[in-house]
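Q: Two folds, back to back.
A: First:
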Amino acid sequence: MTTDAPSRVSSRLPAVVAVVAVALALLFAFLSPRDATQGDLARMFYVHVPSVIVAYLAFVGTMVCAIGYLRTRNLRWDRWAGASAELGVVLLGLTLATGMIWAKPVWGVWWTWDARLTLTALLFFVYLGYLGVRRSIADPQMRAARSAVLGVVAVALIPIVHFSVTWWRTLHQPPTLLRPGEIQMDFPLVVAFVVSLGAFLAVSIVLFRTRLELDDVEAALFTAASSGRNAVLAGDAIDPPPVTVTGENRVL
């Protein structure tokens, strides 16, 4: 019992850190100064921007793991790539949802075919297609190889999405933190943003670990089911018990 205690603590530590980080992020987000133009509505920034940044990191992680698979043909890399892509899709979906909520009072519409919005939606559907490829191919090696190629190619969309607000005229505002020459935010707002970004990273790590654990369970169930089918096909199934014929039950 004593030897299992440290392992239980270490396994729960990321979740505890994530909860504390989220609590701090909410505290800093609500205590930060109101925006001079948008007021409290601008606090959406602390969800909208960190979610897309961590989504980008997740998709880059998918690319790195895809390259790892192509180099080694080890399916562990493929499992990591799939989990990272699922996390990125969830976060990018959150980015699109919060962006639409923010756009309605500011632009007067939920959605417009702005370059940044359109390209972000394209990135979202490309990675949905990546997940669809993974679900549509039964053979593990073939699935890993084809999805790895797509995972490497799809990441090229990220810089196009990110720099679209500087390359074209768009309704979406230009970069706030990394605008050339200066940071377009006061220091308390930057602190609140950094804490929010840390919270998103902490929660994403927990979700990534949990997805891998679920993948282990799915793999174990699949292996057990395959072993059962193979046993039946090989004639190793338990034979039915012999029928004992005695007395009146004897059939002549």
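A: Second:
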Amino acid sequence: METRPRKTLILGLGNTILKDDGIGIYVVREIEKHLRDPNVVVKEASLGGLELLELMKGYDHLILIDAMQTGEHEVGTLIKLRAEDLKGGSAMSRHQVSFSDALELGRRLNMDLPEKIDIYGIEVMDIYTLEESCTPEVRARIPAIVDDIIQEWKRDSSM
């Protein structure tokens, strides 16, 4: 029995004109520079909730990266989350319905959604100022964040 290669979507969320809110997009742009796997697709989006379902269709693995502002972590900290963690209070849930609710709905509708979902939130400082760059504190962490995500993905892929 022949198995098809596992298709992965690396999706960066955010708005690059709102200072740190663009961190998910800036991170996936850097990740893309390191990729050589034809089964991995990198996309950027400035949406959330139900709209994400359409982007996720047809992939086996989703790596989702977005800004988060909890005040509980040092700015620039990378936090691994589960869909259930995003019931509210996240930049990933402020669009219409929460990510976890959208995912549950998509699965109930038998959409072809990823079985494996890795969510990374990056603690940010400023998501309201109109400026097309991150704060220096967040920008300085991008190379380490990219490396951490790539290393974890490689570990998971080799299992």
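Q: And?
A: Strands lie at 8-13, 40-45, 61-68, 78-81, 116-123.
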